[in-house]
Amino acid sequence: MNDAESMRLALALAERGRGWTAPNPMVGAVIVKDGAVIGQGWHERYGKPHAERNALEACTADPAGAIMYVTLEPCCHHGKQPPCVEAILASGIRRVVIGSADPNPLVAGKGVAILRSHGVEVTENVLREECDALNRIFFHYITTGRPFVSMKYAMTMDGKIAAYTGASKWVTGETARRHVQQQRHRFRGIMVGVGTVLADDPLLTCRMENGRNPVRIICDTHLRTPPQAQVVATADQIPTILATCCADPERQVVYQRAGCQVLCLNEENGHVDLRQLMERLGQEQIDSILLEGGGTLNWAALECGIVQQVQAYIAPKLLGGRDAKTPVEGVGVPTPDDAFRLKNSRMERLGEDLLIESEVEYPCSQES
């Protein structure tokens, strides 16, 4: 196996941790000796041993003199686990091949420097583009302290998310809906506005087999969420956050008794200050959010610069209706030149539907 082949195996292993490692990165590691794989592992869950230690533990032969392939620079600091560089040095590994550099200030080149200072040969940037893409969420979170936000919506080919009656089940087919459940497993939080709660009374859980439920975040400026809503009734089982501007403790206590966490925030343009909310959620170690809001919340999120990605599920249908809801409402931009720009788009077919996934490009002064 060459370096690229071994790193691709490490990338495939890292993927197995998707949805479970947050706010840590996904990492895979492979150990090769005399041309054969003798050990492999991945970071399985937050708080559990890292990929490098799992790979060493799984070795079927003495790793002394072997090569370790790891998708991310090995850590060199004490967190919930001891430094991986110590385990690598103790094992006698002679060469370490790394995909991505770790932007975490606690690591950021220090892991590589320690290995080299102890005589270990280090090769960097092997399949870096793929390794960086694997941990885009982690890189955003660790460098900004704020969650990575993906604005997700399903719409028809004429840009409607519901019929003029408000009926929206179902715009897309089963394959696309299963894909959405995978995203709910992948992202640490899911966020909607109170309008969605009032209209649909959603549960906002992950319905994927063996999936992980996201933390539910409701933007509710005036605390209008009904106490009997599903998100409140199940808050003792699934973490639920109400983000509000209502500072009345008597109104808050109803939700707190049900198990909700109430975040009282500043008001901005008539709604919860979303930038402040991102700061608070980052402090709660919520590294990523799937934004499943309606057109009003989606516009507010774009306008204040908190959205990093757009996931548009597009169904081959036409609904029409001048009053039918669209994915992004609000005031809008005055001219096409003022549009929010999307870049690095990719398309995936999901049954009869299409998913277009793009990055949001903000002016440097606006990006969150």
From TrEMBL:
Gene3D superfamilies: Cytidine Deaminase, domain 2, Dihydrofolate Reductase, subunit A. The keyword Ion transport does not apply. Keywords: Hydrolase, Metal-binding, Multifunctional enzyme, NADP, Oxidoreductase, Riboflavin biosynthesis, Zinc. The active site is at E52. Pathway: Cofactor biosynthesis; riboflavin biosynthesis; 5-amino-6-(D-ribitylamino)uracil from GTP: step 3/4; Cofactor biosynthesis; riboflavin biosynthesis; 5-amino-6-(D-ribitylamino)uracil from GTP: step 2/4. It catalyses: 5-amino-6-(5-phospho-D-ribitylamino)uracil + NADP(+) = 5-amino-6-(5-phospho-D-ribosylamino)uracil + NADPH + H(+); 2,5-diamino-6-hydroxy-4-(5-phosphoribosylamino)-pyrimidine + H2O + H(+) = 5-amino-6-(5-phospho-D-ribosylamino)uracil + NH4(+). It holds the Pfam family dCMP_cyt_deam_1. Its EC number is 3.5.4.26, 1.1.1.193. GO terms for molecular function: 5-amino-6-(5-phosphoribosylamino)uracil reductase activity; diaminohydroxyphosphoribosylaminopyrimidine deaminase activity; NADP binding; zinc ion binding. Its cofactor is Zn(2+). Residues 1-123 form the CMP/dCMP-type deaminase domain. In the N-terminal section; belongs to the cytidine and deoxycytidylate deaminase family. This is Riboflavin biosynthesis protein RibD. It comes from Dysosmobacter segnis. The lineage of its organism: Bacteria, Bacillati, Bacillota, Clostridia, Eubacteriales.
